[in-house]
Amino acid sequence: MSASSQPAGAGGASFGDSDLADPEHDVAASYALDPASVRALTRRVVSTTGREVPAYTPITGQPLAMVPQSGEADVEEAFARARRAQRAWARTPLAERAAMLLRLHDLVLERQDEIIDLICWESGKARKHAFDEPLHIALTARYYGRTAAQHLGTKRVRGVVPGLTQAEVNRTPKGVVGIIAPWNYPFTMALCDGIPALLAGNAVVIKPDAQTMLSALLGARLLEEAGLPEGLWNVVAGPGRELGTPIIDRSDYVCFTGSTPTGRIIARQCAERLIGCSLELGGKNPMLVLRDADLDRAAEGAVRAVFSNAGQLCVAIERLYVADQVYDRFRDKLVERTRAMTLRPGLEWGSDMGSLISQDQLDTVVAHVDDAVAKGARVLVGGKARPDLGPYFYEPTVLEGVTPSMTCFGEETFGPVVALHRFHDEADAVSRANEGEYGLNASIYSRDTRRARALARQVRCGTVNVNEAFAATFASIEAPMGGMRQSGMGRRQGAEGVLRYTETQSVAVQRLLRFGPAFGMDDKTYAQVMTANLRLLRKVGRA
Ligand code: NAD
Questions:
Q1: For residues 297 and 445, is the Cβ–Cβ distance under 8 A?
Q2: What is the pTM of this model?
Q3: Residue 260 Cα, ligand 1 centroid: separation in angstroms?
Q4: How confident is the model at residue 395 (pLDDT cuts 50, 70, 90)?
């Protein structure tokens, strides 16, 4: 593994370029970011508390910005603004709402350097992993922009009496959607669930994670620049434990992405209010390498899937099951590729993996690896923190000999660590992949894609990628994405990703016939006529 500790350098966009003030004398200043650019973002937080908290960059641990904090009254104000704006937005023609998303697509691609710089500063991830974020948002905005009418237009359905009952289904917005988002993909997670919510005619109140407010606020600014009317996108800031309940208490629907324990709390609160929610939660995602797999391709996919964003990716692979016949060859290729990775802090292209986001994340990774090693696991490559590169750097790590007694066997590490396991037959591999409580993402490598697709149907995960690790499903926006079992409820992306934000309303127009006895018929005769009709409709093949 090669490493270089060159200082963080700006990636060429407005955020890193201007004169830097000294935060020791000016709390609103920053060593890294231009304070005026920062304030242009942070003023978007709905906040009257007068409280601010500092945000730091994991690249160096230095302060980035002071972020205003919201209280319950601010949440109230955010919802009031959202409700006012939503009424007009719901009446705005669908084509106009869709056009706004297509403009967002163009803007995100045009401004990708600025977006990526900010993501790198806030999250410490490698530039190539930050690039995935504007890419995903552009794909999402384009997909929903282009398919608006298909999902949300009024649909004719069969009426009960052919020709005489004309039935149709309308999709009406829920109202105001509350979004609670995590830090790991701060730009993507701030926007990807809100895009279909807006398309469906809703307003949004969003609480991004405290560690990555700026990337989320840049998303808010780009929405405004794409033409989203005022009041439809409202950002509040503060700890989830404090703002979660006030948000849920006022939402008509809640979209949450984060850990499974927090997801349970949110589900309980939504159930109490009888409002819907979608929960995108954790995973312990397996990859199966079958004996006929292209091993170079599988090793490349594994490295990308295990170490993207230093493993802080919900669909990252943490368990590798490899066929006996190819185990040694695959292990050698994986170790060789991992050892060749370049670790470098900063904003430049060329780093294969960046930093973890925080001390908490680093502590979890260290605890998982140390526990595994203490109980007999072998470190094939990596296994060490790298304070020489940055405060939260940890080496990409491959473990062998991980057993059920070790924490990292079944618990999500959410870091750059994978356990290699050997399997003898495929049925056994599938049942081991299905072990545990999670069911988010899986991957199967095989040259026989028919067999791999058949195996995929036996894997209890919301997405399964064949000859890819995670990107094929994640970037196919028409394909729903989410978790089975403890990995979540509901789906983002595809039709489900937008329909969750709507209520269905059925309208039926009845002609001539009425649903009761007519022409002096008694109730018994009416029942007999209806029964004969049902039999007839069954015979002629009518549903
Ligand atoms: P987390 O649950 O601690 O926090 C996520 C968000 O919830 C943050 O905004 C936080 O402030 C808020 N929050 C925390 N406690 C809350 C409460 N009691 N009420 C309301 N909101 C609360 O999760 P995290 O550690 O920040 O994120 C990492 C987790 O997210 C991992 O488990 C990862 O797998 C998961 N994740 C899942 C997906 C997916 O699509 N399935 C995507 C990204 C991350």
A1: yes
A2: 0.94
A3: 8
A4: very high
